[in-house]
Structure prediction request, 142 residues.
Amino acid sequence: MPERHFLLVDAAALPAVFGKVLEAKELLAAGRAASISAAVQQAGISRSAFYKYKDVVFDAETGRETLTLTATLRDHTGALQKLLSGVSAAGASVVTITQSRPANGTAQVEVTVRTGTMQMSVEEMMRRLARDPDVVEVRRGG
Prediction:
């Protein structure tokens, strides 16, 4: 994964969609929207716009970034618990977890995390998570 490069830009200079993505993310994080569909409807953006920008737009004022990790886990007892323990060990806090039903010995898991308190980079956390034998794949995004 290429190293990320950040710019600090006044929100007034950006397209309105970026602010609305932040609004939707805050609605979800605060529990004022029960789903992404509800959050984007309240914020006035499409789901596709939200998914396009959700992992790359965050509020520099609050220092909080939420991102979604998508993992493919082997269908073994404790695999999800080990993944969540790895997220916690990195200092991230879990916001939401969505898991598919296991099929062909694996299950897809999406974990949305808040990274503001992390003790390491997101990339380092992902490398550590990927070392677990029950993790087939881990990547950013949904």
Notes: The chain has a mean pLDDT of 86. Strands lie at 66-74, 93-99, 106-114, 135-140. The helical segments are 16-30, 36-43, 47-53, 79-89, 122-130. The first strand starts at residue 66 and ends at 74.
